[in-house]
Amino acid sequence: MEERPHERNPVAMRTHYKTKIFLERRREREKTQGTPGAKESHRASVAPAPARPEDKRILVVDDDPGVRESLMAVLREEGYIALPAGGGSQALALASSMPPDLVLLDLNLMGQNGWDIFERLTSEHPTVPIIIITARSDQLFTAVATGAGALLEKPLDIPMLLQTIARLLTAPPEAHLARLAGRKAEFFYSAGQGSVPGPPGDTGKPETSND
Q: Residue 117 phi/psi, 5° resolution?
């Protein structure tokens, strides 16, 4: 049987299994909330997440099918409409035919530079926030300078990813335009997580890009 890309790539493997564990924990919580007192206990121990708009389309651009499918499973579990793209050309075509509300963009695309795809997407869809998801190091300065909404390093912190998506989707279009123009705007960053998943509340902190 042919080996899948995420089975060869340690970072992709950790991202794949972190999403799997996240979904399993979430479904287990949903089961326990059916018992008396469990729902109240859960609410007391977990901080409420930002409100999430319904029926939002999220374009997932990653050439690793394991990572792509895992992220799409998490997004669909949250109620989002997930659109898969295995490369930059497919992402640009999908963005034109089915404009997304937000993009998750990997930088290490097969035969393509993720930053080139970023420039095309922001040029054609300037009000759509883009979250850079990558295992590539030393991308923070570039992400802030180019106007990305966030940089989340792989292996991904899934609760942080969902929180960042919710925050960017509820931000006004003017905030995304200001970010692209290099003006002061909220920026989210999370360093890559280790092989062992952290607790649900273990998230990165938002940063603010400078003028």
A: -65, -40
Q: Is 207 within a domain?
A: no
Residue 204 belongs to a domain: no
Nearest to 189 by CA among 121, 110, 126, 132: 132
Q: pTM for the full model? A: 0.74
198 occurs within a structural domain: no
CATH number of residue 33's parent domain: 3.40.50.2300
CA 60 to chain CA mean position, Å: 8
Neighbours of 135 (CB within 10 A): 20
Question: Residue 20's domain spans which residues?
Answer: 5-44+55-193
Calpha distance 76→59 (Å, rounded): 12
Phi and psi at 21, nearest 5°, equal -65, -40
Between 114-124 and 88-97, two packed helices, what is the crossing angle to 10 degrees?
10
How many folded domains does the chain comprise?
A: 1
Whether the CB-CB separation of 58 and 101 falls below 8 Å is answered with yes
Q: Which of 87, 98, 90, 80 is nearest to 165 (CA)?
A: 80
pLDDT higher than 50, residue 42: no
**pLDDT tens digits along 82-112:** 999 999 999 999 999 999 999 999 999 988 9
Categorize the per-residue pLDDT at 192 as very low, low, confident or very high, splitting at 50, 70 and 90: confident
Is 40 part of a structural domain of the chain? yes
What confidence score (pLDDT) does residue 96 get? Answer: 97
CA distance 41 to 44: 5
